[in-house]
């Protein structure tokens, strides 16, 4: 059968095919572009909504609720460092004595010792029997899980002892205080054999048990890592501390004055300059009431002339004025209850009306959870002290030293370390009229021109270890090469 001839094509058919192909191609292209842009648009939309959520929340949340543990920010948890695998030589249990910053430094030392001896460390116990009688546990002040996780590549830290030690605990663990200011060789030769024998050892005192100087640099850097990275306060403490800083920064720069004129300091130091006879008797009775305080008979004026007493609020006022701080300076007092109350603060408040404390900036409801917990209250002051534009301690106690070191670590922030021995002599000369105000002010500024927290080397005294510069006040091994301050940067 003959094939039928092909049907004739209508006129313009080639144009129709080209038009149809163009439509199909355009549709495919549009769909492809849409599919590519959709995820980007979704991310953009999420980010925009997230920005709006954060912005709105920031305006409404005057109590910094975004920083609290009740409404955490939507952030991915940080990656954990790899766990260090090692054969543990035994367990170390420690009881940290003293106030917040004394215990803080001790915790850093105990982690370092545990790492050096390849031990397993139990979460440290905190002092509950000292003058402050604070019942706070480690987890009431510090973020326990962050502490454990951030150090997992160095040492294993546990929350409780294995059950196999229950009998040992009931019968009493082998307990001892390490020798003060000891180097790593002491722990290797004297302590490690005891741990290998008893499997667990209990240090009942931990303050100043590791040397300031002469340790391997990796151990010094580990002390810093624990102090500045692993020891983080609880979210509630950090949230309230951040709120205090935010309130203070809204008015501009501010100074933190650590006015260590508290009852315990005056009683135990025996410093009664400026106190009435009744107050001096009260402080002496308190010193004798605590058997563990060995120094009982103290001549107050002798200690003062040696620079071993905290400045009084009245003396501090004159020093601040001599240093050039103006009347409108915002000053935050970081301390517990000032001995003598507002009566002793009258001169300071008259000279500096913008004098505030946390009790003046926060509501009673905000502070109520921290009441009767002196270490938690001190933690709030610590956070404010680290963030301040200038930090001035009236006494070189543990708080002053640890804050000074932390401020060095964060970029040599201005810290005025008062030379009390020179100051009391100048104060007496001024108050007796032997120095004019101009002479007094010039002398005070001259004494302190090199005591502003600049980079310096720690003082080493091999035969008098307790008199050396404190490691935590100047952790020089941990400070990366810093730009030297420009001329005038540290001027008063």
TrEMBL record:
It is a single-pass type II membrane protein. GO terms for cellular component: cytoplasm; membrane. The keyword Zinc does not apply. One of its GO terms (biological process) is fucose metabolic process. Pathway: Glycan metabolism. CDD domains: O-FucT_plant. Keywords: Carbohydrate metabolism, Fucose metabolism, Glycoprotein, Glycosyltransferase, Membrane, Signal-anchor, Transferase, Transmembrane, Transmembrane helix. InterPro entries: FucosylTrfase_pln, GDP-Fuc_O-FucTrfase. It is found in: Membrane. The keyword Mitochondrion does not apply. GO terms for molecular function: glycosyltransferase activity. Belongs to the glycosyltransferase GT106 family. This is O-fucosyltransferase family protein. The gene is LOC120264811.
